[in-house]
Specification:
Number of strands: 13
Bound molecules: alpha-L-arabinofuranose
Shape: elongated
Organism: Streptomyces heilongjiangensis
Pfam family, one: Peripla_BP_4
Family: Belongs to the bacterial solute-binding protein 2 family.
Strand content: 15-25%
Radius of gyration: 21 Å
Subcellular location: Cell envelope
Order of helices and strands: EEHEHEHEEHEHEHEHEHEHEEH
Keywords: Signal
Length: 311
């Protein structure tokens, strides 16, 4: 699926409009919709000619989109890679065509650091650590006693946020809670509500004693809440829930007492990306990783924060 914003040619000041080819992961979550809106509106604001395509969560679609941007000789390519591996060949083609590549949101695994200029996005490992630290507070607030039996809903298999959010969480769990916390079930829900709902229903069947859910995004937590309620349990009480993102619907669930805490992951990357595109086009240097700033939220902050959530 490809759509175009603006037209090629002169922007009036005599300089040629920058053409940016952007390959988006898909439209799997509220976070992703907010990210897409941010990129489209920031490109418009910057006066760039944006060529945007939605890969519907498929790596082969992203590879074809990047190849088509190379063939169209765009000025800069940016993309949010659905998974971390398997990019070297297409990125080498971009390099050979002298088109700079900027990663947004998610990283890739490559031995050749010259294949992309920078990553504009969050520290997902730290988000995982923050999720474990905020779970400590949630357990304390709930007066939880005894074993902590955790169900983990992972993001898309092979995606940077799924790998790193699991890693950061486990790091804290192994270092500080080896004797009392256990991940009893873990499976991907593909970052979608439908995935979260379906996998949580199966978790509750196989492990009815789960008392904590760690969901790698709000959408999966919201889907899981439906299955928890269908099983006659109270989300946020019988099963304490920590998720990642901080989209409006997550805040609604938190203000209703159904999610206990949210680790924010900021999707509004558009303005930063456009600045980086300009710098790269002007021949300037940028940092290898431009990290996004974000916060954590407990349930008691949800009602106040809700009216100010933009997405
Ligand atoms: O890469 C960021 C993640 O992708 C978000 O946490 C999730 O909601 C999205 O689908």
């Amino acid at each position: 699926k490809e759509d175009e914003g603006g037209s090629n040619g002169s922007s009036g000041g005599g300089s040629k409009k920058i053409t940016l080819g952007f390959s988006q992961v898909g439209s799997e979550s509220g976070w992703r919709s907010a990210n897409t809106d941010s990129i489209k509106s920031a490109a418009k604001e910057a006066g760039y000619n944006l060529k945007f395509s939605d890969a519907q969560q498929k790596q082969e679609n992203q590879i074809s989109a990047i190849r088509s941007y190379i063939a169209q000789k765009v000025d800069v390519i940016a993309f949010s890679p659905v998974v971390v591996t398997g990019w070297d060949a297409v990125l080498k083609e971009a390099k050979a065509a002298k088109i700079p590549v900027i990663l947004t949101d998610r990283s890739v695994e490559t031995k050749d650091e010259s294949l992309f200029v920078t990553l504009v996005g969050s520290d997902f490992t730290d988000e995982g650590r923050r999720a474990a630290k905020i779970l400590e507070k949630v357990l304390e607030k709930a007066g939880h006693k005894g074993k902590v039996k955790i169900a983990q809903l992972e993001g898309t298999t092979g995606a940077a946020p799924a790998i790193e959010r699991a890693k950061g969480f486990k790091e804290i769990m192994d270092a500080e809670h080896k004797d009392d916390w256990e991940i009893v079930v873990t499976q991907t829900g593909d970052f979608t509500r439908a995935g979260g709902k379906q996998v949580m229903a199966a978790f509750l069947q196989s492990n009815p004693d789960i008392n904590v859910l760690y969901a790698h995004n709000d959408d999966m937590a919201i889907g899981a809440i439906q299955s928890i309620e269908a099983a006659g349990k109270k989300p946020g009480k019988d099963i304490l829930i920590v998720s990642v993102d901080g989209v409006k619907d997550g805040f609604v669930a938190m203000s209703e007492g159904k999610i206990n805490a949210i680790v924010e992951c900021n999707p509004l990357l558009g303005p930063q990306l456009m600045e980086v595109v300009q710098t790269v086009k002007d021949g300037g240097t940028v940092e290898r990783w431009i990290k996004t700033k974000e916060s954590d939220f407990m349930q008691d902050q949800a009602k106040d924060a809700l009216p100010t959530r933009k997405y």
